[in-house]
Amino acid sequence: MEYKRLGKTDINVSAITFGCWAIGAGKEWGSNLDDSDYIRTVLKAYENGVNFFDTASGYGNGHSEEVLGKAIHDIRDKVIISSKCASSSLIKGKTEDSIDSSLKRLNTDYIDVFLIHWPNPDIDISENMEQLMLMKEKGKIRSIGVSNYTVNHLRKAVKYGQVDVFQPCYNLYWRQIEKQSLPFCIDHDIAVMTYSSIASGLLTGKFTSDWKFEKEDMRNEYIALFKKEVYEKAIEINEKLKVYAKRYQKSLTQIAINWVINQPGITTAIVGAKTPEQVIENVKAIGWTLSEEDYDSIDKMTMKV
């Protein structure tokens, strides 16, 4: 496993972050397993060098935090946890209760990184930042992050406190942050932890043009990459990407993760897993790089989606 410093902090995190949305969050990402299965999966990730685990109070109405808390109970001092909640829960009179609720579910007395999940046009960013800075002073959180912010939101946030982490959607098919947000984070020494690093499973290569998702699966309606025209184009490009996977004797998933973590300015890639086997698959994305020629070819190919 490879490790990088998290922004301006003294925290070092693994190049792959274990994404906890799928654990304990119902059928939003397909079939649901027992909590005991998810706990084994979290521990398998730790055994393979993953020390960073990302969750949120909104994942399964807090159940994801509870499952993660149980899984890391005996190794709490050896892992890094990030969690997040809505901007509306990080205002005067609500912030400490919101943080305390996450602490209780995670069975810990501090959270390493706490993020504002989404900006809210009705709430001034300054209030969110001031409240989180207060929680940092109290020792309940170690660092502050923001998720799904535009570069304009980022510019406002850094005026009111130290932003250590930016969490955007980023993968081979979703590259908008390269224009402004990523350069801003590089210039301001803000760590970037990407989510949807394998495009919500699209870059696993297992889906086909006629694939049917379970009724409750959010990929049916809510994720832009799974809309008919975009999805069909991505499936076509997936087939071309599999040529590179074969060349490097890797899976398409590993090609996709490796591409993300080797992008300039990227600190760590959030990748979910439901089973120990998926964890093993994901960590094999570390320790090698694409040739410059192949990198350029993939770069041009995936900008079309």
Alpha carbon gap, first and last residue: 31 Å
Helix-residue proportion: 25-40%
Shape: globular
Mean pLDDT: 91
Q: Work out the helix count.
A: 10
Query: How big is the Rg?
Result: 19 Å
Uncertain runs: none
Number of strands: 10
In terms of quaternary structure, the protein is: single chain
The share of residues in extended strands comes to 5-15%
Described by strand count, sense and barrel closure, the largest sheet is: 8 strands, parallel, barrel
Label the structural class: alpha/beta
For the largest sheet, list the strands in their spatial order.
Answer: 3-4-5-6-7-8-9-10
Order of H and E elements: EEEHEHEHEHEHEHEHHEHH
Describe the structure.
The protein has ten helices and ten strands. It has helices at 35-47, 63-71, 95-106, 125-137, 151-157, 181-187, 228-248, 252-261, 276-283, 292-302; strands at residues 3-5, 12-14, 16-19, 52-54, 80-85, 111-116, 141-147, 165-167, 191-194, 268-272. The strands form two sheets. An eight-stranded parallel barrel has the order 3-4-5-6-7-8-9-10, surrounded by five helices. Strands 1-2 form a two-stranded antiparallel ribbon. A hairpin with a 6-residue loop joins strand 1 and strand 2 (12-14). The longest helix is centred in the C-terminal third of the chain and has 21 residues, at 228-248. The two termini are 31 Å apart. The model has no long low-confidence stretch (mean pLDDT 91).
